[in-house]
Amino acid sequence: MPLLQLKNIECYYGPVLAIKGVSLSVEEGSVATILGANGAGKSTILKTISGFIEPEKGEIRYKEENIAGLGPQQAVKRGICHVPEGREVFDELTVAENLRMGAYLRKDRHNVPADLERVLGYFGPLRERYRQRAGWLSGGEQQMLAIGRALLSRPRLLTMDEPSLGLSPMLVKEIFKIIRRINTEEGTTILLVEQNARLALQTASYGYILEVGRVVLDNTTRELMENQDVQEFYLGVQQESIRGKKRWKRKKLWR
Q1: Span 173-184, mean pLDDT?
Q2: Is 206 helix (H, G, I), strand (E, B) or coil?
Q3: What is the pLDDT of the chain when averaged over all its residues?
Q4: Backbone φ, ψ for residue 36 (5° rounding)
Q5: Which residues does 121 contact at the CB level (< 8 Å), separation at least 6?
Q6: Sequence ranges of the chain with CATH classification 3.40.50.300
Q7: 131 pLDDT exceeds 90?
């Protein structure tokens, strides 16, 4: 059984139907990705899984339990943690205090110091700035802090929203190297929304293409990278054979 299944989820923002019958599944121990244009509903899906948005219809099956509408605190207690777009660290708190916030709901306090040391092993710059305020960190360091804080909750499922946003290419490579390590070394299941489509497809094993609140294509990432429409619209590959096929009727989104 998949660790996570969405079944015909519908979500509204006010009167606007933002998610239109989305179904997807994520196998335990895997990395899956959701791609789509701005406004397609990618972040809404992650917020719905994490309990920040209650769906109007459908089910969110996590470990075979329907968790739709339970709220973010219950999601964290069950092992789901969300790394939001834009990092959203606590600027006035130190790096140490931010990291410990991730362990706030844990009952095994005696294990937290060892987990904290393990997280600092992934993110060397955080060790160097351990007593500094988070607001003084660079964008890349704040992204590391947001991921590290999530790891302190010991998540079984980690949802990540645009982890490369606003970062230099060198930092993006480093962040994704760490994401792969978290998956392989910790066994953490990851559902990733990412603007860098090529990097997302190289990192994940399965992908979903979202268009105006609907899944229009899903497959293994290997198959998606060989799909001519994906190559043109998401990977920037121009091919004579597909120039007249514009199935989704939009231009290339990312380089």
Answers
A1: 93
A2: strand
A3: 89
A4: 170, 165
A5: none
A6: 1-79+155-227
A7: yes
